[in-house]
Design goal:
Number of helices: 5
Order of helices and strands: EEHHEEEHEHEEEH
CATH superfamily: Gcn5-related N-acetyltransferase (GNAT)
Distance between the termini: 27 Å
Number of strands: 9
Number of domains: 1
Radius of gyration: 16 Å
CATH class: Alpha Beta
Helix content: 25-40%
Strand content: 15-25%
Mean pLDDT: 92
């Protein structure tokens, strides 16, 4: 299974000792503000099981992220298949980091490495990301890594109950094609990442 590295981060498969800090992250109401509910320890562990199983089958997915300097687990960043969103199969890039590590550019740094993997190794034609309109933090990350809001593909999330969570139903969709990503990272591009 692939391991990705950046200047500050190790983006790697999951280990059993990631389960406890991941459960703490998923129980944090600030981290889970834009989700219908926080996760119990049982639900969090089940999510890890699902991620690990996907990695075993596909060789990619939602990687655990740790700080290279301290070896501390801080959350996940990765790719996930989303067949149900707007009617056709697509691959989403997503992230969830512990609140104590927000505002330091880690999500952006890791997501750039994951985008590269998706386009160069998986040869995906497009990668999307989505969230509720009010999640400005994630939307800024999407924009920093080069995704653009595709207004015509915004959607009502089919797995969110509109009677209990009406403010979480509508989702904005951001996307980037491989061609746009290649232009963005080309050395001759004025927007090329350093």
């Amino acid at each position: 299974m692939s391991v990705l590295t950046t200047d500050r981060l190790l983006i790697r498969p999951w280990r059993d000792d990631d389960r406890e800090p991941f459960a703490q992250l998923n129980a944090d109401p600030h981290v889970m503000e834009h989700y219908p509910a926080s996760l119990s320890r049982t639900e969090s562990d089940a999510r890890v099981d699902e991620i690990v199983e996907h990695f075993a089958e596909q060789g990619w997915g939602l990687w655990a992220v740790e700080l290279r300097a301290t070896r501390q687990f801080i959350g996940f960043v990765g790719l996930w298949p989303r067949p149900y969103v707007t009617g056709g199969p697509m691959v989403e890039i997503g992230w969830r980091l512990a609140r104590s590590h927000w505002g330091r550019g880690y999500a952006t740094e890791a997501a750039r490495a994951v985008l590269r993997f998706g386009f160069e190794h998986l040869e995906l034609d497009e990668i999307v990301s989505f969230t509720v309109p009010q999640n400005q933090r994630s939307r800024r990350v999407m924009e920093r890594i080069g995704l653009h809001h595709d207004h015509g593909r915004d959607f009502d999330h089919p797995r969110v109950d509109p009677t209990t969570h009406p403010h979480l139903v509508r989702h904005v969709l951001y996307a980037i094609t491989r061609a746009d990503w290649e232009a963005q990272v080309s050395p001759s591009s004025p927007n090329a990442a350093p």
